Amino acid sequence: MPLTPKRRKFIKEYALGGDATEAALKSYNTTSRVNARNIAYANLSNPDVVNELELTFRKLGYDSDYIASRLNNVIEKGINEKATVADALRGLETMIKVFDYYPTQKRANLNVNINPYENLSYKEIVSELRKTREATEKLLKDLE
Q1: pLDDT tens for each residue of 70-92
Q2: Of 51, 55, 107, 117, which alpha carbon lies 20 to 30 A from 98's?
Q3: pLDDT tens-digit profile of 2-36?
Q4: 139: domain range?
Q5: What is the C-alpha separation between 17 and 15, in angstroms, rounded?
Q6: How far, in whole angstroms, is CA 134 from its chain's centroid?
Q7: 6 & 49 share domain
């Protein structure tokens, strides 16, 4: 799906400033920070916008080597410009998110009801627990 002119402007502003809410305020017809935050969230949830942002960052030379280099500079020296260290780190965090360098989080829930084992023999309980363990191991393997 082609990007709208407003989304293109949002991408440009976001790439230049690193603040999605500010980019939305500059790109859309709103003065409300709440609306701008919602617009920014919607844009950053849109795969077309994220892909275009990634291309824009790559064109600007913001790849994984750049991120590592800048982060190292910030850690060692700080920032001697108008921007604060917090500003620089927020920008780097933005690029890390866009390049999807955060590890994927996986969750699993296991609910065990021990009441069904109440009237079983020891061998039957062991058999049921083995089945449960096998099912759990399969689930964990699938999550890897």
Answers
A1: 666 665 555 555 556 676 677 67
A2: 107
A3: 889 999 999 888 888 778 899 999 999 888 989 99
A4: 105-144
A5: 6
A6: 32
A7: yes
In order, the DSSP letters of 49-117 are HHHHHHHHHHHTT-SHHHHHHHHHHHHHH---SSS-HHHHHHHHHHHHHHTT-SPPP---------GGG
Angle at 24 between CA 18 and CA 39, to 5 degrees: 115
**Count of domains for the chain:** 3
Q: How far is CA 118 from CA 111, 114, 121, 122, 126, in A?
A: 17, 7, 9, 10, 13
Same-domain check for residues 128 and 140: yes
Token output for 18: 């690193």
- Matching residue, tokens 């617009």: 39
**Do 67 and 94 share a domain, yes or no?**
yes
DSSP class of residue 45 equals: T
Alpha-carbon distance of 78 to 98, in angstroms, equals 23
Same domain? For 65 and 113 the reply is: no
Same domain, 7 and 55: yes
Per residue in 104-142, pLDDT tens? 666 667 676 667 767 888 888 889 889 888 988 888 887
Distance CA 64, CA 37 (A): 27
